[in-house]
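note to self — DONT lose this again. spent like an hour looking for the file last time. sequence + predicted structure for the chain T wanted, 313 res
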Amino acid sequence: MAGMLGRRLLLVIPMVIVVSLVMFLLASLVPGDQARTILGENASPEAVAALRKELGLDLPPLQQYLNWALAAVRGDLGASIYSGEPVVSILAGRLPVTLSLVVLSTLVIGIIGVALGLMSALRGGWLGRFLDAISLVGLAVPGFAIAILAVSLFAVTFRIFPATGYVPLTVSVGGWLWALVLPVFALSLTGTTLVAKQVRDSAKDALAKDFVRFLRANGVSETSIVLRHVLKNASIPAVTVLGIGAIASLTGTIFVENVFVLPGLGTMATQATLNHDLPVLLGIGVLFTLITVVINLIVDIVYGVLNPKVRAA
C-alpha cells in the first residue's frame, strides 16, 4: 500500500500544474479587463495602461503564468488584484467554512448512507423502493436547486433553520451546526442515496454467501454477522462511492455557499470570477486540487484497511 500511496503523491505536482494552467487559460478568455474593473469604466486609457503594466497584465499570457508558478513554488500565491490582500490570507480565512461543509457532508453521507443501506438490505420492502425514488430525485435535481427548495421550505415557510449566515466553530459549536444544517442537507442528499444503494446491493450479495449460512448454522448472532462480516464486505465498494461523494461536495460548495451566503471558498471563487481576480482564482484552484488529492489518499488508506489485497500491493 505504501507504493500505491507514493505513486499517488507523485501525481500531485503534475495535477497542480495542469489544473492551474487550464484555469489560467480559461480565465484569460473571460471577457473584460482587470485594470478597467479596478479603476472603473470612466478611467482614462492612459491610467488603465499604466495599471496593466504595474500588475504585469501587459505581458504575454504564458509569461504571466510562469511568473505566477515560480512565485507559487516559493509559497507566494500573489495578491488579490481587486483588494490587494495576499491570496494565502484570503484562502486561510475562507477555508474553515468550506472544510466544515465538506467534512460534515461526508460524515452524513457515510453514516446515514450505510445505515439506510443496511436497513434496506435486511428489511427491503418500502424502504428499498423509497431509496430508489430518492436516488432518482437526487440525480435529477442539481444541488443548488435542492438548496433553494430547502431554504424555501425550512427557512422561509416553517422558519426552522436560518436561511443565510455562518457561525464560526470557535464561537459556538451549536450555532455552527445549526447554521450548516440546510447547506449540508443540500450537499449530501445525492451522495447519501448513492452510498445507501451501493451498501444495500453489496450487503444483499454478502447475505447470500455460503459463509453467512455457515455462521448462522453455528449459532452466531445475526447482529454479529451483520456488523462483523456483512458490513465489512459491503463497505469496500461503498468507500469508493463515499470518496466520490466527498469530492462532489467540495465542488458543490461553489453553488451552495452562494445560495446560503456563506463566506467560504465557493463564494470567493464567484466574486473573483466577476472581478477578473486571476490570482485568487488560481489559488482556489490549487487548493481544491490539493483537497481532492487528500480525499483520494484517505479513500485509498481506508480501502487498504478493509481489503488486504490492496495492502499487499
